[in-house]
Structures are given as structure tokens and as C-alpha cells.
Design a protein that fits this description.
Length: 257
């Protein structure tokens, strides 16, 4: 299970990540946009999962995928024990007894750890706070000379929108799947359309190649497609696939820019 940012020694800036990463390097787990839009300066991207959480589009977005007047919807992870106290119409479809959430972890070398922490703090400023949890890597190497992935659990930093934060959807009506889908279908923020975020997440999870489909996400995709219409949804899905490919496998020219 995760734990809020804490440690035996708290530096002046309030950060305690070095208590978890004494060598100065950093591991960051992404379960949402970080899967397809990695942090800068990473030298390893490892697919895998964390246990004890459930991923839900129950976090309002007043910046990246919405506005203060018309907030969009983005994902957070919720601790399983607390989630079980909430009314969730898809609860019966959560088959994993360990509440597995799939995603990708990134290794940041010590030379860039503080810089990346700064970057992520700004990127996740809308209601997310730093926590730490064990991450379980999965080796998906297909090429004989591919870089070996870690095999043991790794402590990872993860940004979570806690139920106590102001952007969490406290009203159970706003957490209903159809309500979430309708909000996603019409919302847009500084990073683009909310539908794009949804499709990017679905394609990214599928791209992990680990049977990591998320029933909550796939159900929302189905509902949003109905609201958008076949042609518009197909065009946005195709764009999402292209964007993911460009983000994770940039051309040589882009990689050196």
C-alpha cells in the first residue's frame, strides 16, 4: 500500500524523497498521462503494476483537460480499502483481489532527479500529492539484446489525487459512469480535449501488452464513442495511436532536439 510523503528528516523544501532514494536517483510510477507522456531525462521505462489501488476517472481537471468553469475528468488511484466503502457500479467487475493497477515506471538518474521532481510537481499541481508504493516490474523484452528490466519490487514515487483533495469527486452522482462519460465528451483544457486523454490512456494500457486492460477505462471509451459518433471517435483513436508512437519512439532528429 502507498504512504504519504514522509520521512525521518524533512528538508526545508518539504521534500523527503531522498529518504526513499538515498542514492539520489528516482523511480516514478505513471498510471495516467505519464504512461504515454514520460517525464524528461528518464533512462529506463519499465512496465508493471502496483497493488492495493483502483484506477478511476474520479478527479476533476481544471487545467490540462478542463477549465475552472467546466472541469474535465482525469484518473487517480484510490486505495482499495477506501474504495470498497464507496458506491461504485462497476465494483462487481473488479476481479483482482490485490487491486492491481498497471502502468509504467521511469528511472531518473541522480543528475536530473531534482529537476524532474520540479517538473512533475508543476505538471501534477491540480490536486495530486506525492506518495510512495512498491512497484512490480514485468519483463516484456522481445529482442535478445534488449535492456534487462529489474526483477524485484521497486519503491516508486507516485502522484495521487487523494479523496481529501478539492478535485476529488465527492458527489456519488458525479462518479456515475455515464455522467463521467458526458463530461469527458464535452471538456477541453490547455493540454487538449478530454476525449483525447481517455483514448490515449486506453491505447497506452493496451500497448503495454500485459493484458492490462482496465474495465473502468474501456467502459468509458464505449460510452464516449456513442456520444461522439463513430467517425469522430475513430479519428481521435487513430490520432491517439500516432501520438503515443511519437512520444515513446521519437525519430532520431526529435530525440536529439
Amino acid at each position: 500500500m502507498g504512504s504519504a510523503e514522509q520521512g525521518s528528516e524533512t528538508p526545508r523544501d518539504g521534500r523527503t524523497w531522498r529518504n526513499y532514494f538515498p542514492k539520489g536517483d528516482l523511480w516514478v510510477f505513471g498510471y495516467g498521462s505519464l504512461i504515454w507522456k514520460p517525464p524528461p531525462h528518464y533512462d529506463q521505462r519499465v512496465p508493471g503494476y502496483i497493488n492495493g489501488y483502483v484506477r478511476r476517472f474520479w478527479q476533476a481537471s481544471t487545467d490540462h483537460r478542463g477549465t475552472p468553469e467546466n472541469p474535465g475528468r482525469v484518473v487517480t488511484v484510490i486505495e482499495r480499502e477506501f474504495w470498497e466503502t464507496l458506491d461504485d457500479p462497476l465494483a462487481h467487475l473488479e476481479s483482482s483481489p490485490t487491486a492491481t493497477v498497471w502502468g509504467a515506471a521511469y528511472h531518473i538518474p541522480a543528475s536530473h532527479a531534482e529537476e524532474v521532481h520540479d517538473y512533475l510537481d508543476v505538471r501534477e499541481i491540480d490536486g495530486y500529492t506525492v506518495h510512495y508504493t512498491p512497484f512490480h516490474p514485468v519483463d516484456t523484452r522481445k529482442e535478445p539484446n534488449a535492456e534487462e528490466s529489474p526483477s524485484s519490487p521497486i519503491v516508486c514515487m507516485v502522484y495521487i489525487g487523494q479523496p481529501t483533495n478539492p478535485q476529488f469527486l465527492r458527489d456519488s452522482v458525479r462518479r456515475e459512469q455515464q455522467d463521467v462519460a458526458e463530461v469527458i465528451s464535452r471538456s477541453q483544457g490547455q493540454s487538449g480535449k478530454n476525449t483525447e486523454y481517455l483514448y490515449l490512456l486506453e491505447k497506452s494500457l493496451d500497448g503495454l501488452g500485459l493484458g492490462s486492460a482496465d474495465v473502468h477505462v474501456t467502459d468509458l471509451v464505449r460510452r464516449v464513442k456513442v456520444l461522439e459518433g463513430v467517425e469522430e471517435a475513430a479519428a481521435e483513436e487513430a490520432k491517439a495511436e500516432r501520438d503515443i508512437e511519437e512520444a515513446l519512439h521519437p525519430s532520431k532528429e526529435e530525440a536529439h532536439q
